[in-house]
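dumping the sequnces here before i forget
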Amino acid sequence: MKASNDFSIIAGVNRLIHEPARMAVISLLSVVEESDFTFLMNSTGLTQGNLSSHLAKLEEAGYVEIKKTFKGKRPHTVARLTDSGQKELNQYIKTIKEFLSYF
Amino acid sequence: MFVLQTILYYSLNIIAMKNNITGKILEKKTYRMLYRDGIFDLAFGAMLIIYSINMYLYINNIDTPFIMRILLVPVVCILAAIKLLFTQKRIGYAKFRRTRNRKRLMSFIIATAALVFTTIIYILAASGKMDSEQKDAWFPLLIEFVFLVSVFFLLAYFTDYYKFYLIGLTMGFAAPVSKYLELYLDTRYYGLALAFIVGLYLLASGIILLITFLNKFPKTVNNES
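..and the predicted 3d for all of it:
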């Protein structure tokens, strides 16, 4: 039945991206080529620990690629969105947009 | 949590209005974070104030000290150093996409072309090859107004630094319009006053932004995880 399909659209949304903090991170990474940890933290307002945890989950899913280097003695983490991450984000936005159009 | 999610959904709706998901608005907002330290405001505020002081001295036939003529250069250098050594490190680094690099290139081309053109006009006027004191020369003043406003409006578009709109209008009214009105009303100082006031506003805005920025984005701790 169509009605249950409409609701299953939103029920089946990508929960990894759906989480607000991860949504903020992945949205930011979608509009830049790459970003370091500090910029991500300042832009999203997340704490260090929180951001690290979310980045780890996104990296595990293959949506984000993380490079860890050193600038002098300081660790420097740079993140970028993968093609898979961009594809999932686009699909997520399309799903939400479609569902919102029902209101 | 639900309220946050609702805000996120509506934000996404606005962002994803077009069929093509480009994130243009989000990219602009992200890029504009680079202006949060107020350095641009300080630089252009200083520019307007120095301009108005120099013009005041010129109108009153007071010899402009050499330092005043070049003051903007060290001011800009100091502000650039503050940006590179302090504020940029605090906000972090992001490499923007090619579309942003194209916009940066366009703004650089526009600024350079405008500077070269202005320098040529200045040299021509200073060498007497161009009469800069024509009484009925409203047409050159109109061209000057259009030129100034266009340059700054284009820069505003390409840099997404919206205060360029205000600066463009200020320069347009402070110089050519003021000079035109001078023919009919004794308004020699009105244009300068406008430039000075807007310059003060930008300086104040820059200082407030810088203080807020330094409080909001403290020096980053070494241990990124």
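The CA atoms of residues 21 and 54 of chain A lie 7 Å apart.
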